[in-house]
Amino acid sequence: MPPVLPRCYLYCCLLCVRLLLLVFTGVCSWHTSGENDTDIGVRNPPVQATVDNFGIKILRYEENSGSISLSADLVSCENLHGVGSFDTTCLLNSNVYLNSSIYALGTGNLEILPHVSIACPIQGCSISFNLSGNVKVGSDATIFAGSVVIAAHSLSVGHNSSINTTSLGGNPPAQTSGTPVGFEGAGGGHGGRGASCLKNEQQDVWGGDVYSWSNLSEPWSYGSKGSGNSVQNPFGGNGGGRVKLIVEEELYLNGSVTAEGGDGGTSGGGGSGGSIIVNAYKLKGLGTISAAGGRGWAGGGGGRISLKCYSIQDVKVTVHGSYFLQLLLPRN
Ligand SMILES: *[C@@H]1O[C@H](CO)[C@@H](O)[C@H](O)[C@H]1NC(C)=O
Ligand SMILES: *[C@@H]1O[C@H](CO)[C@@H](O)[C@H](O)[C@H]1NC(C)=O
Ligand SMILES: *[C@@H]1O[C@H](CO)[C@@H](O)[C@H](O)[C@H]1NC(C)=O
Ligand SMILES: *[C@@H]1O[C@H](CO)[C@@H](O)[C@H](O)[C@H]1NC(C)=O
Ligand SMILES: *[C@@H]1O[C@H](CO)[C@@H](O)[C@H](O)[C@H]1NC(C)=O
Ligand SMILES: *[C@@H]1O[C@H](CO)[C@@H](O)[C@H](O)[C@H]1NC(C)=O
Ligand SMILES: *[C@@H]1O[C@H](CO)[C@@H](O)[C@H](O)[C@H]1NC(C)=O
């Protein structure tokens, strides 16, 4: 059993919403999901919890500086076939396909024009932008990689655009058992346990385990693979990736931010969700934030999401996965 109720106090308001919506499904049914959330000690939490700003406990702000690993190529705007520079404004107006991690640093702005995609579709490949200016992801644009980090003054993510790390997780931390042993097509675990289709009269049987309890407010682990159905086919869906958005002012999210587990198909377990960190002064928009587990023979567990904001306004952001919510005190 994972430890239970480590941060129940954060859920006072959400808990009642959830309890009202609870849907108890069996541990196993085809294409069911693993646990989205173990942190309130409830199995099979509601299909979705919508974050609103009623009754969220206000905690003291603690500075947490996340630094990016630099095992990536430092790129210029030109390297990405863009116009301008990261110290003024870089406009990306054509699709960019990468095959290794990149890191961009500058004092300017970035604008990814509508319908443009920047992708490194390799497990664990990272795309990082650390800019002092504003970042704008146009409507229908996509950033697709194993890890996506954006640090900026403000960030706007347009309608139908996506920051997507689904199924592109690299290796989960060593010494964790998120990927279930055996070939039962069980789901991977991370923020929640993976599901299993095994029946046992005495006790519940679960797939992969929960891990990374130590960093609930700063989750930065990849999700885990589900198990497959044979030695030849040992794994199901892949784990979810990681997203970190550090925004000084406003994050206007009309699109989606996802780190979901991969689909395990009809014989493999779903992968577990990865990790998402959102630190912003103000979070608003009609978007979605999801680190849900992947589907499969048995579903993967949800990943971890940490939202730390001074205000959450007009928000219709829908959060899937185990999450940590911190509303910070306004600055003086
Ligand atoms: C977990 O969340 C997903 C949405 O991403 C939903 O489809 C699924 O039904 C949820 N699982 C449970 C057991 O509620
Ligand atoms: C961005 O760069 C600044 C200065 O180079 C550094 O202090 C900061 O930690 C970086 N942000 C992230 C999210 O890595
Ligand atoms: C990666 O991309 C670079 C340039 O885009 C190319 O020169 C290189 O051959 C590619 N490497 C692999 C392994 O595909
Ligand atoms: C959303 O974006 C996807 C991919 O960019 C595109 O295929 C789809 O048509 C768009 N949907 C809408 C409603 O614009
Ligand atoms: C988000 O959607 C709202 C409502 O459609 C719109 O008013 C706003 O300008 C949009 N913002 C961005 C950044 O796309
Ligand atoms: C993210 O990528 C996955 C894998 O390619 C895809 O199935 C999913 O539809 C994408 N999600 C969004 C919101 O674009
Ligand atoms: C958790 O965060 C702390 C401090 O931010 C860091 O030292 C530690 O390595 C992290 N642990 C994991 C498992 O990521």
How would you portray this structure in words?
This protein is mainly beta. It has a domain at 47-164. The chain is 3% helix and 30% strand. It has one helix spanning 12-21; strands spanning 49-50, 58-59, 73-74, 83-84, 89-92, 96-97, 102-106, 109-112, 117-119, 126-131, 134-137, 142-144, 147-152, 154-157, 162-164, 242-253, 256-258, 275-284, 288-290, 304-313, 318-320, 322-328. The strands form two sheets. Strands 2, 3, 4, 5, 7, 8, 10, 11, 13, 14, 16, 18, 20 and 22 form a 14-stranded mixed beta sheet that branches. An eight-stranded mixed beta sheet has the order 1-21-19-17-15-12-9-6. The longest helix is centred in the N-terminal third of the chain and has 10 residues, at 12-21. The termini are far apart. The model is unreliable at 1-31 and 38-70 (pLDDT under 50). The site of one 2-acetamido-2-deoxy-beta-D-glucopyranose (NAG) has 6 residues, from loops. One 2-acetamido-2-deoxy-beta-D-glucopyranose binds next to loops.
